[in-house]
Each structure stands twice: as C-alpha cells, then as structure tokens.
Amino acid sequence: MESLLEDIEKTATYGPALLESVSVGFIKTASRPLTKESKASIKDRILIPENLKDVIVPKLNAEIWKLLPSQAKIFEIKHQQTQEVLRLSLSAFATIANTMATNKKDMPATVVSSVIKQAIDGGNLIDDQFQAISTRRRYDIKKHLNPEYSGICSAQTKTSEWLFGADLAENLKSTKATSTLMRNSVARKDGRFTPYPRMRPVMQGQFQSSSLNWNRPLYQQYRASGHQSHRFARPQGQNRMLYPSSQSFQHRVRKS
C-alpha cells in the first residue's frame, strides 16, 4: 500500500499557482463543511437552466419504494440528496461555459477556450459521479429484491425519470424470463439433465449432499422413510424392560 501511494505522489503533476486570494478561498472551502444556512443560500443562487431540466435525479419506482425497509429508505434519500448537489454543480459549470461563450468578443480567444474546456472537464467528472451514484443506488436495493428480479439492478439498466426505467413491469418480466432460462441451462451437463447436485467431499471419507437425510445416522434415515421394523421399535410402558436395548445384555441372553 505504501509503495502504491508513493508511486501516485511521485507521478502527480501540478499546474500554475493560483492567485493567493483564490487559493485561500478554495482551501477553506475544502477544509471545512458548509453550514446549513450557507448551503441553502448557494442552492438558491444556482438555477437550473431551462434546457438542462432533463438532467434530473432519478426517482425510485414507487412499486419498489413501498416495499423497502426503513433503513434502506434512509440510505436511498441520502443518495438522492448527493445527486441533487452534483446536479447543481453541473449546472454551475455549464453556466460558466455559457458566460464565456456569450462574452467571447470581449476576451481573448485563448482565455475563452481555456475556461470553457475546464468547465466541460469539471462537468464530465461530476456527471461520471452522478451516474456512479445511480449504479450504487441500484446495487444497495438489489439485496432487498427477490434474486429472480436482481437483473434490473444491472449497471446497463437505462435510467430516465425513474431509477429502474419507466416501464418497471416489463423490465421485471424480462429479467425473470432470463433468470429462468439461466437456471434451466445450468441443469444440463454433457447434454443430459442433472436434477440433483453431485455429492462433494467435505473431509476425507465424507460427502455432503443437498439431501437433508444424507448425513443422518442410518436409524434416523430409516425412520424418516416412514417404515419401521421390530429391530428398531422401542416398546413403551412397562414392556420396555422386556426388551432391553443394551447390546451387552442381548449378547448375554444369546449365550445363555
């Protein structure tokens, strides 16, 4: 781990220094959290451009939301709040790029292109994190779903206004069909169906099977089959003394 960190530090390159006032302001921002009031004020100042309204935080489909446990709902809300902050940040970068493009006649072309490029780079990084959180939201919900429907949590799931797509019923039907197909395919081996799994050795001389009766003693297996013999039947009441089960006693009786 230390060698990996050293390698990262050695290969790091830094750009030209910022103005002192600019660097101090950003260092303070990175080293201390915003107060609740400051955060609310910044959010109020940043307005989503009209033609960026399609960049939205996907809502969780109502059919899944109502079935989630309380703790899972809390995590889901926190993820959505983080995505909303990223959405506002993306809008801020887009507005910077738009301001530079609008006033390009008043500034050198190199400055305009440089600022716009930096704004786009920042926007791309934010958008990547935005998508990563959507994937994380689906992953966190996956453990609460029936395994037959876990396919809808794939990173390839196309999001829209809803986290699991607009047509959840159709997506569920499709992923269940795929799950059933995979289970049936696994049942084949060498062109033949193998409905029961092979026994696998646990330790030397022992085997493990999915059958609940496999590792039980012979006596228990015999009784589980629903048939009993007089050799295994144990008399009840006072007659129990007439049929001692001790092997040593039976041996003495046979000798006599």
Low-confidence stretches: 185-196, 199-214, 238-245
Helical content class: 40-55%
Structural class: mainly alpha
Cα end-to-end separation: 79 Å
Q: Kindly estimate the percentage of residues that lie in beta strands according to DSSP.
A: under 5%
Helix-strand string: HHHHHHHEEEEHH
Q: Count of DSSP helices?
A: 9
**Regarding quaternary structure, how should these chains be classified?**
single chain
Mean pLDDT: 75
Overall geometry comes to globular
Strand order of the largest sheet: 1-2
The biggest beta sheet reads: 2 strands, antiparallel
Can you count the beta strands?
A: 4
**How much is the radius of gyration in Å?**
34 Å
Please describe the structure with a list of short key phrases separated by commas or semicolons.
256 residues; mainly alpha; two-stranded antiparallel ribbon; 9 helices; 4 strands; 3% strand; globular
